[in-house]
Write a structure and sequence with these properties.
By secondary structure, the chain is mostly helical. It contains two helices and no strands. Keywords: Membrane, Transmembrane, Transmembrane helix.
Length: 77
């Protein structure tokens, strides 16, 4: 049974040593690994708690349907 757990034990020791000797790289990899998990897990959780997505932002401005009057004044001759 000990031979089955040996790879996990050595991996745990390696990660423990890396966290002690190179904490910036170790924790950067941990945070980077959590990112894709959160990208999949957060939207259903937000929906469960009642988050409603806002309406989409308009991409254009509505132009009035009337004749245009020319601009006059301030050197617009």
């Amino acid at each position: 049974m000990a031979s089955l757990l040996n790879p996990f034990r050595s991996t745990y020791r390696y990660l423990q040593r890396q966290a002690h000797e190179n904490p910036v790289i170790f924790y950067s990899c941990i945070i980077g690994g959590i990112g894709p998990v959160l990208a999949v897990a957060v939207p259903p959780i937000r929906k469960h708690f009642g988050y409603v997505e806002p309406p989409p932002i308009p991409l254009g401005y509505p132009v009035p349907n009337r004749q245009r009057t020319p601009v006059q004044g301030y050197e617009d001759e």
